[in-house]
Amino acid sequence: VNVILVSQANGKLQFLCQREQTDINMKNIAQSIFPVINGKGGGNEKQAQGGGEAKTITSEALLTMLLHQIR
């Protein structure tokens, strides 16, 4: 089971990604997103979270990026 949450408010994006039992490294996925949203955050192999600016990407586009990376 994988869980991804994305929120956009007041020009900011936030996301959380979590996995139960897969080989996907959520920290690596989050680190690949941070440059896109000029953001920061952290986590580990099972769960990561972060936030940044909604200037160059919408929450829908961010969610799509995250979904493509976990497939």
How would you characterize the overall build of this protein?
The chain has a 4-stranded antiparallel beta sheet, with helices on one face. Helix 1 runs antiparallel to helix 2 (59-70). It is of the alpha+beta class. The chain has 2 helices and 4 strands. It has helices spanning 26-37, 59-70; strands spanning 2-9, 12-19, 40-43, 47-53. The model has no long low-confidence stretch (mean pLDDT 94).
Number of helices, where a helix is a run of at least 4 consecutive DSSP H or I residues: 2
Strand content: 35-45%
Overall pLDDT score: 94
Helix/strand-derived category reads: alpha+beta
What sort of overall outline do the alpha carbons produce when their principal axes are compared?
Answer: globular
Strand order of the largest sheet: 1-2-4-3
Total strands: the figure is 4
Order of H and E elements: EEHEEH
Q: Report the sheet with the most strands, covering strand number, pairing sense and barrel closure.
A: 4 strands, antiparallel
Poorly predicted segments: none
Radius of gyration of CA atoms, rounded to a whole number: 11 Å
Distance between the termini: 12 Å
| Helix-residue proportion | 25-40%
